[in-house]
Design brief:
mainly alpha, 2 helices, rod-shaped, coiled coil
Length: about 210
């Protein structure tokens, strides 16, 4: 950019000098040489001043253009930096939003898992209670069944004992009758019924065991 500006400046200066010289020669015409030289010197001085002024103006414009270009570059860099920072901030924002969304999704998933775990725990607890109740009921049923079997067995044993006692009583009565007849004391002997054995020969009847409720 600086080389192009300097080249343009040189070309403009040469063009202006050539134009001024041509204008001076055309203006000499038939004038005396001294007058023409004086006028030429004056014109050259004026031209030099004009050229110097133009050169100074070009230099000032070039300096101003360079300053403007530098300011433009600085502004462009600042804009580029601002755009980059904004893009980075936007990306960070979206990343934060995505992390937040993922965290919320994970939280919801953990809540669902907790609810399912609580349901399973409650179900297992109910099953455990039911199992304990069933076990207790089974133990009670087995105990009641055992007591029923014991009562039946005891009842059968009692019936056997009563039957044996009745047989023994009848046998004793038969022996007593025969003895009474043989001794001749049958007339004064007390009548004894087979259906009513003596109390001394009867065994006490055991009480029945109450069945469990």
């Amino acid at each position: 950019v600086a080389e192009a500006t300097a080249k343009t400046k040189g070309e403009n200066t040469k063009a202006k000098v050539a134009f001024l010289r041509k204008q001076i020669l055309e203006e000499l015409g038939d004038k005396p040489l001294e007058q023409a030289l004086a006028e030429a010197k004056h014109a050259l001085a004026t031209a030099d001043a004009t050229i110097a002024e133009a050169a100074a103006m070009d230099e000032a414009q070039s300096a101003q253009a360079g300053s403007v270009h530098k300011e433009f570059e600085l502004a462009r860099q600042r804009v580029t930096q601002a755009v980059d920072e904004e893009s980075a901030a936007t990306e960070r924002f979206f990343l934060a939003q995505e992390k937040r969304r993922q965290a919320m999704a994970n939280t919801e998933e953990q809540k669902r898992e907790l609810v399912e775990a609580q349901k399973k725990f409650a179900m297992l607890e109910v099953m455990s209670v039911n199992a304990r109740k069933m076990q207790l009921l089974e133990e009670r049923r087995e105990k009641a069944l055992q007591m029923s079997e014991d009562a039946k067995r005891e009842l059968l044993e009692q019936k056997h004992r009563e039957k044996d006692a009745l047989v023994a009583t009848r046998k004793a009565l038969s022996i007593a009758r025969q003895a009474a007849k043989g001794s001749g004391r049958g007339r004064g002997a007390k009548h004894v019924s087979d259906d009513s054995p003596p109390a001394a020969l009867m065994e006490p009847t055991p009480k029945k065991r109450a069945l469990p409720e």
